[in-house]
User: What shape does this take?
Amino acid sequence: MARIEHPAATETPLEWDTPLFRTARTQFEQALPHADVSPVVAARLRHPERAVMVSIPISRDDGTVEVFPGYRVQHSTVLGPTKGGMRYDPEVTLGECAALATWMTWKCALLRLPYGGAKGGIRCHPKELSEDELERLTRRFTVELVSVIGPQEDIPAPDMATNEQTMAWMMDTYSMQVGHAVPEIVTGKPISVGGSVLRHEATGAGVVMVADRACRQLGFRLSESRCVVQGFGNVGGIAAQELAERGAAVTAVSDVSGGIYRAGGLDLQSVREWVAVNSALAGYPHATPITNAELLELPCDVLVLAAREDQITEENAGRIAARVIAEGANGPTSIEADAILAERGVVVLPDVLTNAGGVTVSYFEWVQDLGRFFWTREETRARLAEKLGDAFDRVWELADDRLLTLRGAALVTGIREVAGAIEARGLFP
Ligand code: NAD
Assistant: This one.
């Protein structure tokens, strides 16, 4: 094994020093003492390898031109190409992408996928853009990034406010640049251009697989539990559906417009139909309206967080009345809240494990694209369950063994995998 012994600088460049990056960094520092990695490897892992910022000019439908900032951060390439979502959101910054890219590295390593982490996006209000404007924005963004993405370099996927259509535009734009179809450049595409069965449902389904395993370890059945879901998009909408299919009562759901509550359980089919017509939960007539803040504090067995970062903080952690919190979103619990929840005995199923179903089926999609050979839904679902189950068991065992929180154990497991690869490869040159 190559030895790396020299100490190195550890300052955080100001460009990505944002609250979310500080959270990711603090979690890393808290996990380090248990990860047994050398100071030099630790220093390397504190810093994303590459960050790209671009300006994306597009013609609006009214003929004016607007320029949007776009980002892509690649945290680690030691295990393979980088992998991570692209989000369209008014709060996207370089620091946010750096934090999310760092978590993606631990997540991929924890799941033993041959990837490092990346994240990117465009700072914009996606709801204020027409479909045509979103297409122009996505295509120009892809061209701006063409020299740093690639099937062996960095493979984008959907995230907040991006979807299969966004990925199809990216795949088409990249393919036009290189002169032939390259389905393996992105994951989360439509099946007609090389997407995988189950990818659309993978993150939400994975959240429920992990929650189910945790409930069994804790001695109660998910199928008999009351669940609350924050966020009703790709992750939250599917998680709610999977929970209901397993027999759980989903008593409340919310989106950015607010939440709805029904003590006996919501009729999710009717909720979905309402959202399909009205584009938001607000105004749904067959349940009690509640705020997002109230939803988080409802008594329940499992609270699924599937909206965005920083939802459980020092301010509300003391009032959370769930037995288990399943983090479908990335970074929904602050460092301070984590400590309060641990003290109160609330079990937090951490994002790097709980929402890893998405990147796992993305990996399956990439493998299928490279081999031009596609799997059935049953095979894909069974492989997903096996991967998540294996990661869950390793995390649970380490947490038990070293008296760590599940987040601590998940991060230590991921960090050790990456550190082992850096130690083996050595520091170039
Ligand atoms: P999405 O855009 O499909 O859905 C987001 C949902 O959250 C929407 O219902 C939106 O209205 C709601 N929301 C936004 N802000 C909110 C707020 N302040 N309060 C309550 N609800 C709010 O996005 P998504 O793909 O479901 O992603 C959700 C989270 O899951 C993100 O943190 C994302 O990084 C994470 N994630 C997504 C995937 C994936 O495969 N899509 C994989 C892993 C992690």
